[in-house]
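Let us practice reading a record.
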Amino acid sequence: MVIKELTNQEFKKFTNNYKSSSLYQTPEYGFVMNEEKYDTIFLGLVDNDTILAASLILIKNKGKLKYAYAPRGFLIDYSNYALLEKFTLLLKKYLSKIGVVAIKINPPIEHNDEAFNNLTRLKYRHLGYNNFFEGLKPRYEAIIKLNKPYYDLFKDIKKEFRTKIRGAEKLGIKIYKGKENELKYLYNQTEKKYPRELVYYKNVYNFFKDDCEFYYAKLDTYKYLKQASDKVIKEENKNKILKATKKKDIITVKMEKDALLSKYKEDLIKANKLVNNYPDGIILATCLIVKNKKEIYLLMDGYNKRFKSFNAKHILIWKLIEKFSKEGYKVFNLGGIPNPDKYNPKYEGLKEFKLSFNVKVKEYIGDFELVTNKALYLLYKK
């Protein structure tokens, strides 16, 4: 067996045929990160021209020293100790030869004692069970299995969220498939959330090509105005005929109706202002998805915080779940989520949002580090 660099085509063929692989283990992701100033190589463990294991390796330079990453780990059977041992020994030798002091991996497997023991036995140092977003990639992901009709998937969503989704649609919010020149909407809504420049979004969009799609939720302000106007007219007509009930006298009923009408009129004033200020509509929420085999991965998403009450992100995510479930995809991955059993006020909103879609939380084994050159590693850490 030998370890060698694979061509783009060899690596892509192997990942496509591998039983389980992440979008972070694709040539396309390697090309994206190459533009982010990482050196990118595809390595394979080869025996008689047969590739037994492979990995995307990203290398970051720190002066003359180099540190490597394998996002979502290696494409290898971690339960096969002999294979993992051979790959590790040859990988250490290869990386040390090109000046890499260590490599960090986060294996694409859920918590598994056998895999954990095999890695630690081979001197991979486990970096701990992070609960939030301290690692190279999130240790927890929110997964929706698209194994039932979309209308049943909708029933699985938290009742409060279903109400918000229906309400958002009635307000005049529609979902559009965007183009490359519209990625600026996503960047504007996420620049404080993700440490990425607009060029990163464009690189993802272009390198993944047909497997990457951009969507946004837009408010039709004229439709919103009409909806607000109709509600006022309808409530005014109701107020002309007031009746007492067993629990409320006519005065109480009148007061409640007046309060509701007052609210609707305030909404109408707001709607008029929005039409004047945004006659072409408002981009309320955005997201970028990547297709990987039969999985949809929500890579990035954002929303306009000024208009959070419109719940545009709720309807945007739901409409994509509906769309891709109809198209035969098996999994919708909502991306990273904090440990559902740990409290952190910074992430409670994110956690509640994703859990409300009735997700299965997938827990990964965590980050590991393998030192390939101890002397230079100590110098790198200073």
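A brief commentary: The chain is about 40% helix and 25% strand.
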